[in-house]
Design brief:
34 strands, about 40% strand, mainly beta, globular
């Protein structure tokens, strides 16, 4: 079991992933919950929200009285829905007037911007804008996303994306090599205009290179913008960089890019784990929070070892946004495969994972850190 997605709405936290039962905060009562649940953000009390998904949940976007949910499912409450559904935020009932047109593929990211529901995944378009009322696709975002970074990389996919707080930029990561015929390996940026989204000139050519792993060729795992939108941070898997790649290649690392620099020759900084995957990132004004199954940060010389200057940061860590070096914050958590989502809120940081321990205490799959 694992929690893979978190979202907040009016004092309620929604959590989705791969699970069938949930034990409450007191550890005394077990509830049946099919891949999604919600609970009070202060007390931890379970909400009655209990829709039945027949497959994992990967993305949650509350909006108004509804919750949009993406994942690898084909039915919700017995209603056919291929990877994307709109639910009543309180009852969990399927809102049937929202009916997306695609019948194959899954959804791994869902966010609202410019009045559009923007969705990414393995479905035919890979990245598309939908009417949030009807689910019909429209021409706001109409891009040809194609290619695969390697024969073993799986389906062409927009895996994750982030949208700046002013809703003017979108950065996507995944498995692709071209966008509208322009070469864009593993990442691209869009300019989100009022009437139409367009491909930005932003490009980072070193992303054409693979990391040392021959198995994890599709290595970018998550991206998030700073609160003011001036920069964004990507995190990655892929093992260590190949020879000569330290400083440019984003391999088992977190890397900062400036939004306004459309042709960077290298990131502003890269923080390497030394051979362990980072799965998720959340950027606040004070820190860049990262998690995965890493053992260290500040480890450019490591190769499944602690190199010179490496600091222990088991499963989770925080990076100084300016220097790119690890901050002292070091709660530690079960490494497992590694947590797939972090949610920064005004009251603190919510951590979703597949682990049981956080800071030496039992916090199975969900932990909260006041900041």
């Amino acid at each position: 079991p694992a929690v893979q997605a978190l979202a907040a709405r009016k004092g309620t936290i929604y959590a989705g992933g791969q699970f069938r039962t949930v034990t409450d905060a007191s550890g005394t009562t077990t509830y049946q919950r099919h891949h999604i649940m919600s609970f009070d953000a202060v007390t931890g009390a379970m909400r009655p929200f209990a829709p039945r998904f027949n497959g994992p949940v990967w993305a949650i976007e509350p909006r108004g009285q509804a919750v949009f949910v993406g994942g690898a499912f084909t039915a919700v409450n017995g209603v056919p829905r291929q990877g994307l559904v709109k639910l009543n935020a309180v009852s969990g009932e399927v809102i049937r007037t929202f009916a997306p047109p695609f019948t194959t593929g899954g959804v791994t990211e869902v966010q609202m911007a410019r009045g559009q529901l923007i969705v990414g995944g393995t479905f035919p378009a890979k990245l598309r804008a939908f009417d949030p009322a009807t689910g019909r696709g429209n021409d706001y975002l109409n891009l040809a996303i194609a290619g695969s970074v390697a024969a073993n990389a799986g389906d062409t996919e927009v895996y994750r994306f982030a949208i700046s707080s002013d809703e003017r930029r979108l950065v996507a990561v995944g498995n692709f090599t071209t966008v509208d015929g322009a070469e864009r390996w593993r990442a691209f940026m869009l300019n989100l205009r009022r009437g139409e989204a367009r491909l930005s000139a932003w490009s980072y050519p070193p992303l054409i290179r693979r990391c040392d792993s021959t198995f994890t060729t599709d290595y970018l795992r998550d991206v998030d913008f700073s609160p003011d939108g001036s920069y964004f941070v990507m995190v990655a898997a892929g093992s260590v960089p190949q020879e000569g790649g330290v400083g440019t290649d984003i391999c088992d690392a977190a890397a900062r890019f400036e939004t306004a620099v459309t042709a960077p020759t290298q990131p502003t900084w890269i923080n390497y784990t030394g051979g362990d995957t980072l799965h998720s990132v959340a950027v606040t004004g004070a820190a860049v929070y990262v998690q995965g199954h890493q053992r260290w940060l500040d480890n450019p010389d490591g190769d499944n070892t602690a190199g010179t200057g490496a600091v222990e940061r088991e499963g989770i860590g925080a990076i100084d946004p300016t220097t790119g070096l690890a901050l002292p914050w070091n709660p530690g958590k079960t490494r497992g495969i590694g947590g797939k989502d972090l949610l920064a809120t005004p009251s603190g940081l919510w951590v979703a994972s597949d682990g049981a321990l956080f800071n030496g205490e039992r916090r199975a799959r969900i932990a909260f850190c006041p900041l």
